[in-house]
Amino acid sequence: MRVVHVDDAGDPRLRDYTGLTDVSLRRVREPAEGLFLAEGEKVIVRALAAGFEPRSLLMAERWLEPLRPLLHRHDVDVYLADDAVLQGLTGYRVHRGALASMQRRPLPELDEVLATARRVAVLEDLVDHTNVGAVFRNAAALGMDAVLVSPECADPLYRRSVKVSMGSVFAVPWTRAEPWPDALDLLREKGFETLALSPDPAGHDLRTMAVPERAAVVLGTEGDGLTDAAFERCTTRVRIPMAAGVDSLNVAAASAVAFYALGQA
Question: Is residue 63 pLDDT above 80, yes or no?
Fold first, then answer.
């Protein structure tokens, strides 16, 4: 570990941290360059504990000593900067005072993720990184064994997703469900009942339905829900009963209800 003091937001050594508020840029850059950003001490600690290798860290000096015991064995540069430099570089106030650029790992094969799983969450085309992070946090907290995300789903390792999940994206095995929606057929072939979560009144009441031995709950995008192609490949439609004229829940809230119900069996 090498400690380096920086006083210029334009320092080229800090390139991993530039343009953090430009979502479209980061969405392309990070996977292409094999990195993701962890923000805040707790998230950084969880990323390191999960075995991710740091490329570098950027932080206010007050975070150096708390993180030093975890970093001393890594061949990594730790850049220290004051709050003005941090804000000038990132474009926003770094409230938690610490960022880490971490090396991505190759995603596991779908068969590997499903090998020992009984309860799986499947996300189709969720575009909001906050929702993706919240679903991962729910999945970890409520005992889901794995998460699958469609090719067009927002990146679970995007900074906002990781932050909202409080590092839960490191705790739950996940991979891309490709090709989509054919991956739903593979789930069925492997003995999973695929449960399409929908407000459709014809769906089975999630409170009273018999939960299968292996179940995958499929959640659709924030606006339109599941596509017709995904619906057609699911074995069962399930719903969360609503009251007071409410037609549906936010996808993150709905996921928590569904995961809890699956966990009771």
Answer: yes
